[in-house]
Structure formats: C-alpha cells, structure tokens
Amino acid sequence: MNHSNINKLKQVFPTVVKDGQVDWECLADLLGTSFYNKEKYELTWAGKQEAKRCAQESLDGYTLKLCPEKSVDLENTQNLYIEGENRNVLKLLRKNYFGAIKMIYIDPPYNTGNDFIYRDNYTVSQAEADLWEGNVDENGNRYVVNQKTSNRFHARWLNELYPLLRLARDFLTKDGSIFISIDDNEVTNLRLICNEIFGEENFVACVIWNRKRGRDNSARWFSKSHEYLLVYAKNKNAFHTNYLELDEETKKAYKNPDSDPRGPYRMLATWARGTQGGVEYDYTTKDGTYFSNRLWLFSKENLKKLEEEGKLVIRGDHIYRKLFLSENKGKIPETIWNHTSNAANASDEMKRLFGEIVFDTSKPTPYIQEMIKIATGPNDIIMDFFSGSASTANAVMQQNREDGGKRKFIMVQIPEICPPKSVAYRQGFGTICDIGRERIIREGRKMKEDAECAVDVGFKTFTIAETNIRWNYPKQAAAWLNNYKEQNTDELDFMPGTKWIDVAYEIILKQNDILLSEKMKQREDLGRQTFLYGESYLICLEKKVDRKLLEKIASLDPFPIKIFFRDSAFQDDLVLKDEVIRRLQILTEKNSEDRKNTYTVEFI
Predict the structure, then answer these.
(1) Peptide linkage before 558 cis (omega within 30 of 0)
(2) pLDDT in the model for residue 294
(3) What's the mean pLDDT in 136-150?
(4) What does the domain layout of the chain look like in residue ranges?
(5) Cβ(467)–Cβ(502) below 8 Å
(6) Which of 45, 386, 51 is nearest to 192 (CA)?
(7) Domain 53-244+349-462 adopts which CATH fold?
(8) What per-residue string of b and e applies to 434-462 under the rule 16 or more CB within 10 Å gives b?
(9) pTM (predicted TM-score)
(10) Residues 330-368: tens digit of each pLDDT
C-alpha cells in the first residue's frame, strides 16, 4: 500500500496506522472481522526481536587498539576515550566493566526527523526492507537520516537505542543509575523501553530541564522551553541520591542570636499551643512552662528529646525547634531544574574554548555536573557512549576539582566526519572525536594553571581495530596449521604488523573485571615481548620459555595473580606445559619463603 492510500486510511481509522505501517489486525478488529485475541500490554515494533538478539551477540574478530599519539598523560591517567560505534565498543568492554560503572549519562539523537543515526545491520529479506524503509541505500552509507517520512521512523530509532540500553544495564553497579536526555519526540517510547529493560519499579524520576534562555515568539504553537531527563536505577532499593549543597541565599537564613556554641541555626515553627485538632497531651518544660500539644504533629518523647538537646524554643503560643546549619544534610534533588544552566550557556562554553561554536548540540557542563553530584561518589566511574563534544568528561573533571574527588570517565564516540562546510572542519577538526579530545585537552590545560589542582585531566585513547591474534578465526586456523613448518611462529600466532603492546591489551580485554585504566609496562628485564599490567597480570609473549626466564618471573615482588604464556612457545607439548607450571610453583614458593602466592597460568 502506497503512502497516499495509507494517509487516506489514517484519516478514517487513525488507530490502525502505526509508525507508517498498517496494523492489519487492528483494522480487522475495527471492522468486526477479527476472530482471535492477542491482547497484551507491551511496546513492539518492526525489528524488536532482532534488536534483542543484537544486544546479546558478542563481537568476534575485533579488539581495542591503544593510540598513544592521541592520548594525554598516558602513563598516569585512568580516564578512557574510545573511538568507535558505541554498540560495538560496549560489547568489547562488557567483560572488563560488567557491574563497574556507577553512572551513565547519554544524550542520544532525539529523532527530530533530521538526526543522523547509525544504520542497523539486521538481517531482513529484501521484501521486508522495501516494506519497512523503501529503497535501501545503494551507496552503502554508514549513516542515514531518519526522516519523518520514513515508514520506520520510530522503529529505526528504537532499534538503535534498545540494544544500547540493554548493554548499558550490564555495566551499572548494583547501586548505579542511568540518566538519559530526551525531548517530546521520543520521550514516551523511551520511557516504555526503559521500563522493559530496567524495570518499571526502577524508574527514579523524570526531570524537567529548562533549556532555553528566553521565549521563542516565532514558535507556531508553544515556545518549547524544556527537555526531559529520565533517571533509572539498576536497583532502586540499593540506589540513593546525594543531597545537594545549600545555596548561599538559604544559608543566610541561619543565624545565631543567642550565641549558641553549636553555630548558626534557623527557627522552625513546628506547631502551635492549644487545643485545635488532633489528639492532645500535656507537657511541662523544665522551667515550669505548661502547654498541651497535638500528638499527631510531634510525640511526647521527641518533644522531651528536643528539650534535652536544647533545641526547644517557646515564644508565646508558638513552639519552635532549632535546626542547626551543621545538621542540615542539604537539599534533596527536585524534578524541575531551572538552575543548571541552559543550551545557550553550552554554546557559550564552545565559544570560550574554540572561539566559535564547533559543536552545536552540546549540553552545558553544570547540567551534567548536577547529575554527577546527585548520583556518584568521589571514586566512581562515569560513562557516556554518546560523548559528542565530551561535555561529560568536562563535568567529571570540574566536579573532581571542586570536591577533590578521583572520579574517572569513559567517553565513547563514533568518529563521525565533520562536514566540509562546517565551522569545525574550517578549524581543522576532521571528526567529532577530534573535537571531544581537544575540548578535554583545553579544559585540562586551564585546570592545570592552578598549581594546587591535582585533577586527572589525561586520557588513554583506544580505537576499534581488527584482532591481533590469528587463532581468533577458527575457520582459518587449519590452513595456518598446515603451513606451520614454513612459517615463523609470530606469523602463525599474530596478524602481520602487529605490535606486542596491542596483543597485550587484547589479552586484557578478554578477561573479566580487569579495567583498562591501569598501567601497561614493558618488562625488558624479562624479555622484549613481556608486559606487566597493573602490577598483577604478566603477559609473556616470548617465543621460548626457559628456566632462566622462569626464575626471573618467580622472583617478581609483588607476584602477579595471573600469568599468560604463548601456547606456541611449548609447541603443543602438554608435558612441557605441566613441567613449566610445576617448576614455576617450586620457584615461587622458594622465593616467597613463608608467603604463599596464589596465581593462575593461562596459555594463549
């Protein structure tokens, strides 16, 4: 059915056209020809089952490659900046950071009709593709504009977001949370898929953010002044919000007219003396003042406790209690944010850093910083896999500067090309990643001008690359093994041109719960192809393992908790492998004297 007929049908039966497609079951039901009932409460769309499957798939044959030339303070930083498609990056990081991220913030495309979104690679028939989205892109473009005229306008957006949110949930700590910016275009659908993925019971808040500096009188109906911020917890019972600091105006209400040694306080009019309403009880203070009080406002026991603490004040017919500034935990976060800067301020930040607006959809630093204050502690990890201009990294560094925290960030951004006619391109930025990294560098430079600033303003840059290890491709393994005698073992094990440090990082990436923020040191005293990661993981890529090398490894202090050897170094000799493990155990026990070293050995 063509668009014209669909639109005509929609005018008569508005409920049967959904996301540009005819719901034939719904139409049959309205016409009284439906003979079955499949009613249930759910959100569904074309491609949902494939989106679910996509979230569970691993990404074989790829790894993350360290880019030293794009990194800052490589030896010391614990921050990460990763170039690549966010879905693929999350799949590669899932083992290492499962349950390790305290807070995720994302600002995804809002699906306004002009957004660039990443083309999904779901396997569908040509007939399905034609039905869902018309002509497929014959040029094989990496991105497509999701225009409102598309038959799958909402479905394509949901197919992009759904797997990402499924993956994101795996990264959150038990008390972690995710904050998602969105506007009216998809807030309803986003809320429904978040309810499905995180659980409706883990919905925390829908914040209204006042994003505009003024009124837009050119608007056709209403001047749109707000956006939404959806907040979900991994487990709402474990999640808690931090109180926000009192503003200076509120602090002025705390005075100390009677020179109380406990500092400034304010008087709270808690209740009035008398007999109006509620169950009453009699109370006489230590100085003989008698009054009756309404029980439903304050118990007699608590009243006595206030008096004993010197917090009870009686003036005429009114009873007050002292609330000391030192006892005030702060402000509980509210769901309307008028105080956290606006979109125009975000543009001002770009101008201050770059002289022009090189990225026009960034969020202001104070806005994201407010989320960090609410949901994280001083040593937590914050992730943003729609990093854009790296506003989140900026906010993390700024919050660390203000409270002395050691929070770490992980920024993920696809290296989307800056259009040739854009301001960013004119300034020399080839991709959005170039903008994000440069922003971190410039903000970090400003912070370091303060000699007392100890904030980590560096970052390790990684990019998605093909695997370095040949035997990750099982189908090709047999062919390589047939040529084993003619090949160098390095050629057999690794891809041509591979760097040893890349192999070492790929091995670490395959492990569970090992973060990529630790130092990777080349141990030339052990061999040119041996690395120590974070003082705990020894990666020995030497072609041959002899007694001399084992003695050096056994004498390491502190001793690694895991040691990796190349399988080809033992030529598949199981007896030799077993002998090496036993010899290593004997040597470590000898060197450690009374200490017992617990470690594992793995062959790659």
Answers:
(1) yes
(2) 59
(3) 45
(4) 3-40, 53-244+349-462, 248-327, 474-603
(5) no
(6) 45
(7) Rossmann fold (3.40.50)
(8) bbbbbbbbebbeebeeeeeeebbbbbbbb
(9) 0.80
(10) 888 889 998 878 888 889 999 999 999 999 889 999 999
